Amino acid sequence: MTPRDASEPNGSRWSDLDRPPLNITALRRGLVRQGGLWSEVDVVQRTGSTNSDLVARAAKGEVTEGAVLVAEEQTAGRGRLDRQWTAPPRSGLFFSVLLTPSEVPVARWGWLPLLTGVAVATGLSRAAGVDTALKWPNDLLVTVGGAERKAGGILAERAGDDGVVIGVGINVSLKDDELPVPTAGSLALAGAVSTDRDPLLRGVLRSLEDLYGKWRAAGGDPGPCGLHEAYAAGCATLGRVVRAELPGDRAVVGEAVAVDGDGRLVLATEEGVQEPVGAGDIVHLRPA
User: Fold this and answer.
1) The model's pTM
2) 63, 160, 185, 273: which could join 144 in a potential S-S bond, CB 3.0 to 4.6 Å?
3) CA 105 → CA 216, 220, 264, 280, distances in Å?
């Protein structure tokens, strides 16, 4: 799909006055600047997956680091473990960014989704006034009616040998009857002071630019740049008893006691073993 300005005439764009289209001109003016990370910002009305689109464009050499692709609606958005991510048009923020951290050893690129999670949570807390937390590795949690709900997620994909495309999906204005599953939430349902997507997107991308710059300057070491500490402080999984559903139909139950230097979740099991988990689905069994 060819990117086009979200302000182009379209008979359906004003169908929901509570969900105005993104202002592409203002977004570019606020984000694309000399010496900054963000090199271009494009908005499409509708696409299958911004991640798939941006990976394809990177493979063709059409974009450079800092390219941002935003969709007003995604019809085939994907979360972790190939889960579907769907939402009504203009009800959330669905975007992908291209990063090429050439100074960082590839072994440390696994921190990028966690870094993005910290940046998204920080940006949204500032711009929306909502307390957010991270479920390992990078689900965004908000509190709705006293219960934790998932309001967003992050997916990272390699783009060639030297790049990573990070996709972010955030439920902004979804109402109760629009939630895809009962455990989902949105910023609006969590009492956000603003659901205006333009400042929310700018806030998230500026937060990501800042933290990514510090991480890259530290050669990807999560300690000196403060990433490790920030992630642990914002991770709602730590201190809880969880079940890790691992590849190969294996499951491990234990207390989440740490996030190690490689970004893995360390579980202390009843057998007295500390087991690092690098991939899998985490289920919170008891509150911290």
Assistant:
1) 0.91
2) 185
3) 10, 7, 17, 23
